[in-house]
Design a protein that fits this description.
This protein is mainly beta. It is built from ten helices and 62 strands. Strand 40 (about 635-640) and strand 41 (about 645-655) form a beta hairpin. It comes from Microbulbifer rhizosphaerae.
Length: about 950
């Protein structure tokens, strides 16, 4: 009898919970850019204006063929004609909603929004384009019948401070209802929302906000896993009629804290109850996480000091503007994490709801920002927007910091509003200044600011640095910054500007992508998330696993399979990772050309036991390699995290370039080499190959094979310096014909020697001397070759992306191939770029419309220069002056700057190449083969 009573009570309680009246949601629009609903629409000016038609909602009207496109800088000079958009939509609600609390919610509309239901105002005009807002509309509805929704969206606000904060800001100025619109229906007595504060120790506190309370007597809560398993005991609190909010707290044992490395999440279930009946139930996904700024110490998550490694991101897609989708949000978070970043700043406005859901799920720390760009909201305009920002985003564990505006666009009178609405009392910052215990200074130089940043006593975390205009900034300079940040205990990391090039697809320009000149091509990624070279360099520099040996390209002869390794994680032991190695052999250019492919062969592979190394500690990783490992060409090592995601793959060459050249180049072939002199040239030949050397310069003057001319000429000549020929002679030596040229003059070219072997290999050696302690961007030699005759290149070296002196990382050894392109980074997006500097050349085969040209290097640390990249529009400090010539073999290359600073402002790697030894000599050797290799 007792057990039957218990069972009956359990059934009644379960039934009451199951049949609780939930919040009902009904979308009036679509949910994202890929799922829309057509509404009636009329825009006041610009394209397709002055007539009623339809528009998909959500969307920005500019991206749907209406109105006009505007970037921030032209909003005053040429006022937008499309200042107003009118929307109409008919919808119905069920009769059983009568008597419920019903709200209409707008996820976001730009900028002033007036809403009417069946002709009646839903409430005051909402001002502010980046925020979710709502109206209680139950009294205006016709239940079981059609209802008319009318919305007027004004592009500019009637509040000047909102225009200054949002409309005159450094981003595209979009318009319209760009996020979803939906209805929410709750029981008369209901839970409006719950604000959570869950610490990493298991302390749980919540503020539950109530509405319409009459006879409800309690609020009950429980914590569960995401799959519904209960954690800890339920807890409850009594309430009284008319009560508006209630505090609830508990302590939960054995929880797993949330962090960017391990984003464990839980669910809080709140029930509004009347004795044994549940009237209304809401659920909140959250994580147990603690945030703390310790002044003059650092930023702490869950009691551990962390450094944020992040990028700035706008909500943006090139053919839909600010209207995005969960798929885009997931892709962006995954790309950010693929770069081994752990943070994102949502400059300069609250993102889509689904973006924060992804940062919660996948693990990224977020700086969530009130809009403001060098101008701020007034206190009157800003107060409701701070409330809307925090009420919507409060419970996301990924949100660890609030930003009050940007670069002077903060109103200090609003600082207290953040802690008023946020029961977690997360830190508040003013990006660009020292506030809240963190110096967030923007775009300072590496050695700036006596008394602050690296030279100060305050925690520092630049929320914008290394401005990634075109191919400059982003990873260029990051290696120097990051090494210095790691050495400084006050560094809390930093955020690169920016994640993507914000190029808009213009239907009035035949689909061309417009980046507003140099205002918007700031990304590590292109508009459609095309990966620039900086993407991969950041991935290596910010890897949480660091091998000091990765600073070298080659394994030393003393290598015994042991690698030093540093754990740069905050919460993860390296024993949780998976390490896999592979020994690699590379075919030569003859084999790869015959197979028309790039790549390598795996000779052996295996796993290494993950070492027990705690966060912040160092140790060793032992690779159990086979005995013959030294006979292989290269070693590759991949680290994967506990989720199976690749962290990075490091590669080291085992065979040096000279040894590989000796394996490839055949100088002992049978045959004869001929030579003749004219008044101006020395001509060499073997088989159907003919060469000519200019007797006045000692440089290559012409090449032909099988009667086909090859246009490589005028080299080698120095990229920095010159040389006056003093003597040139021809001799025969060991079956080869040799042309030897000597030069006079200190600090110039000293010697060039051409040696044509039977079998058609041409061996070139050269030597030059620098005059003393000099600084130069370039060291090496160059040739001329017409760019229009090149179709592609296949090479063995670090690739596939080009490098700069201050962005050498992110490239790995392999045989790579790319077709010719004329990409201007950030203005066109065919990556990797063909032109530029390529690191650690072993060999390269240039594919041309004439004959293939194969170059085989014998010296380590040789850069191959392929032509001169086209300069971007208004490059500011990212302009790089390339040396003369087209095909160059270099020992020293140039760095690249950022938008605001020349390269030397961002660390030692950004400086010129310094030759310190008086009269230092440089020597080089290269083998050349013209034409297709014999079968």
């Amino acid at each position: 009898m007792i057990s039957r009573s218990i069972s009956a009570l359990f059934f009644l309680a379960l039934s009451a919970t199951v049949f609780a009246d939930p919040t009902e949601i009904r979308y009036l629009s679509g949910t994202d850019k890929d799922h829309t609903v057509d509404w009636q629409f009329n825009v006041s000016g610009g394209r397709n204006s002055g007539r009623w038609t339809t528009i998909p909602v959500p969307s920005n009207w500019e991206m749907q063929g209406f109105g006009s496109y505007h970037y921030w800088s032209d909003w005053e000079g040429t006022p937008a004609p499309d200042r107003e958009g009118l929307y109409r939509h008919t919808f119905s609600v069920p009769t059983n909603w009568r008597g419920k609390s019903i709200e209409i919610i707008f996820g976001g509309a730009m900028t002033d929004t007036e809403v009417r239901i069946n002709g009646a105002p839903a409430g005051p005009v909402h001002r502010g384009g980046f925020y979710e807002f709502r109206y209680d509309i139950g009294e205006h509805l016709n239940y079981g019948e059609d209802n008319l929704l009318e919305v007027k969206v004004t592009r500019f606000s009637a509040d000047d401070s909102i225009n200054l904060a949002e409309r005159r800001a450094d981003f595209w100025m979009f318009s319209g209802i760009y996020r979803p619109v939906w209805l929410e229906a709750r029981p008369t007595q209901h839970i409006r929302r719950a604000a959570l504060d869950a610490g990493h120790t298991g302390d749980f506190h919540s503020q539950v906000f109530l509405g319409g309370i009459d006879n409800a007597d309690s609020v009950r809560a429980r914590i569960t896993t995401l799959d519904g398993k209960r954690i800890g005991r339920p807890f409850s609190v009594k309430i009284s009629p008319g009560q508006k909010q209630v505090s609830m707290e508990t302590q939960v044992e054995d929880i797993l804290p949330w962090s960017a490395e391990k984003p464990h999440r839980y669910k809080a279930v709140f029930e509004l109850r009347d004795r044994n009946k549940t009237l209304h139930q809401v659920e909140e996904i959250f994580g147990f996480r603690t945030v703390e700024v310790r002044p003059r110490d650092g930023l702490y998550i869950n009691g551990r000091k962390v450094r944020l490694k992040g990028a700035n991101r706008h909500s943006f897609w090139p053919d839909s503007g600010r209207t995005t989708s969960p798929e885009i949000s997931r892709r962006d978070v995954e790309l950010i994490k693929e770069m081994n970043m752990n943070a994102v700043r949502v400059g300069h406005s609250p993102p889509d709801r689904h973006f924060l859901e992804m940062t919660d799920e996948l693990g990224l720390y977020v700086i969530d920002e009130l809009t403001g760009w060098q101008d701020a909201y007034s206190t009157e305009a800003g107060r409701p927007l701070v409330q809307e920002l925090i009420v919507r985003d409060h419970n996301h564990p990924s949100v660890i910091i609030w930003a009050n505006g940007n670069e002077g666009g903060w109103n200090t009178e609003l600082d207290g509003d953040f802690s008023h609405w946020d029961i977690q009392h997360r830190p508040v910052i003013h990006p660009w200044e020292l506030f809240g215990g963190i110096n967030t200074a923007h775009y300072e130089s590496y050695n700036c600011c006596t008394g602050s940043l690296f030279g100060g006593g305050e925690v520092f975390m630049p929320t914008e640095f290394l401005h990634g205009l075109y191919d400059g900034g982003a990873a260029a300079g990051l290696d120097d910054w990051w090494k210095r940040m790691l050495q400084n205990p006050l560094s809390a990391g930093g955020f690169i500007w920016a994640l993507v090039d914000e190029g808009v697809v213009r239907d009035d320009r035949d689909g061309a992508i417009d980046t507003a000149g140099n205002s918007a091509p700031d990304g590590i990624l292109g508009p459609y998330r095309e990966k620039e070279g900086s993407f991969f360099a950041i991935r290596e520099i910010w890897s949480p696993v660091y091998f000091p040996q990765s600073e070298q390209s080659h394994l030393p002869t003393s290598f015994d399979g042991v690698l030093e390794v540093a754990n740069r994680y905050d919460f993860t032991n390296l024993r949780e990772l998976d390490f896999r190695w592979a020994l690699i052999d590379f075919p030569g250019p003859a084999q790869t050309a015959a197979n028309h492919k790039a790549g390598h062969k795996i000779a052996a592979r295996g796993r290494a036991d993950a070492p027990d190394i705690a966060p912040g500690r160092s140790g060793t990783l032992q690779l159990e390699l086979p005995e013959d490992w030294r006979s292989r060409d290269a070693l590759a090592l991949t680290a994967r995290d506990h989720t199976g995601r690749d962290i990075y793959t490091w590669t080291w060459m085992i065979i040096p370039p000279a040894a590989m050249a000796g394996r490839m180049v055949k100088t002992d072939s049978e045959g004869t080499v001929t030579a003749e002199e004219t008044q101006t040239q020395i001509r060499l030949g073997t088989g159907d190959l003919q060469l000519s050397i200019d007797k006045s310069t000692g440089r290559l003057a012409g090449v032909s094979r099988g009667g086909k001319k090859l246009s490589l000429s005028n080299g080698p000549r120095l990229v920095s310096g010159d040389g006056k020929l003093s003597n040139i002679e021809l001799r025969q030596e060991a079956g080869a014909q040799v042309v030897s040229a000597q030069y006079q003059g200190e600090g110039e070219m000293r010697r060039i020697e051409w040696r044509l072997h039977p079998g058609s290999w041409l061996q070139l050696t050269y030597a030059y001397q620098m005059p003393g302690q000099v600084e130069t961007d370039y060291l090496g030699v160059t040739f001329d070759y017409p760019e229009e005759k090149v179709t592609g290149v296949r090479w063995l070296g670090r690739g596939p992306y080009r490098v700069w002196k201050n962005r050498l990382k992110g490239v790995t050894f392999d045989i790579w191939h790319k077709n010719y392109n004329d990409t201007v980074t950030g203005q066109s997006w065919e990556y990797p770029e063909f032109k530029g500097f390529h690191r650690d050349l072993y060999w390269a085969q240039l594919e041309t419309r004439e004959l293939p040209i194969t170059l085989v290097a014998t010296a380590e640390n040789t850069f191959l220069r392929l032509f001169t990249p086209k300069e971007a529009k208004d490059p500011m400090q990212t302009s790089v002056e390339f040396p003369a010539g087209d095909i160059s073999l270099l020992t020293g290359i140039a760095p690249i700057g950022t938008k605001f600073h020349p390269p030397e402002a961002h660390g030692p790697q950004g400086g010129p190449n310094r030759v310190r030894k008086l009269g230092q000599w440089y020597q080089g050797e290269i083998f050349l083969y013209f034409g297709t290799f014999p079968e």
